[in-house]
Amino acid sequence: MPNKKIALVIGSGGIKCAAAIGLVKVLQEEYLPIDLIVGCSGGSMYASLIAAAVSAEDMQARTLYLWTNEVMKDYTSNLKATQDGSVRFNERSGLVDDSVMNERLRTTFDGLTFENLAIPLKLVATDLQTGEKVLLDKGPLMDAVRASLAIPIIFPPWEIDGQLLVDGAAVDPLPVDVAIQEGADIIIAMGFMLSNRGRMRSMTAVQQQLNNIYMNNILKSTYAFYNLAHHAEIFPILPDFEEPLGMFDTDKLPDIIARGEAAARAELPHIQRLLAG
Prior knowledge:
- It is a single chain.
- The protein is of the alpha/beta class.
- The chain has helices at 19-29, 42-51, 56-66, 75-84, 99-108, 141-148, 176-181, 203-229, 253-276; strands spanning 6-10, 36-40, 121-127, 133-136, 158-160, 163-166, 186-190, 233-237.
- 42% of the residues lie in helices and 14% in strands.
- The model has no long low-confidence stretch (mean pLDDT 88).
C-alpha cells in the first residue's frame, strides 16, 4: 500500500508501557516504516525514545534508570503532612518531591528536542486549569515528557508556555485521535488496561482504584468510538498481563517486554496484509 502514512500510538500504563520495547523489536525486524509517533503519560517516554531512534537495548537500560523508588522521594512524609494540616496543598503541589525524577529525565533526554528527532512526535498532556487536551510538539523533550506523565496529586504539575500541565491520561489514555488528525492511514495503537485492586487498605488505595476505573473506561470508549468511525485502519496492540504490576516492578521487565513483543506479533499478519494490498 504505497504512500500510506503509518502512525504509532503508545498510551498510558506506567511500567506496562515498557512493552513498547518489545513492539519496537518487531517493527525493526519487519522494517515497518513509522511516519509519526504519538505518546501519552508513561507512553510518552517510550514514544520519545523511539522517535529519537534509541535502540531497544538502550531503552531497557533507561527504563531501569528512570523507574525506581527513588523518584518517589518524600511521598510518605508529604502525605502525612497534608493529612495533619502541617502542609497546605494547592494546584502546584504534589505528594512527591520531583527533584530526582526531573534530574533523571534531564539526563535521559539531554539535548533532545522535537526538532532534532528522527521521526515526528506528538505528546499529549492535560491543562489542569481548563481540562483541555494539550498537544506538545516543539522544544525540549524533557519538558514535554515530564508534563505528560505528571500523575495528578502524586507529581507536581509542569508549566509550559504559561499552562499548568498534568498527565495526558486524564484526558485521553490512548490518543488515537491525534494520529487521525495528523492524516495517518494506518495506526498501530499500543494501549494498557490498568489493574484493579482486590483489597484497599487506605484512602490513597481507594483513590487509585477509582482512577484506574476512570482510565479504563475512557480507554475502552475512546477506542470503540474511533474503531467504529473508521477514520483510519486501527490495529490495537493490547499486551495481556496475568497479574497486577506495581509502578516499580522492574524485576519483571523482561516479561513485560516479551508480552509486548507477543502482542505485536499477533497483530503483525493483519498489518502486513493491509500494507501488501
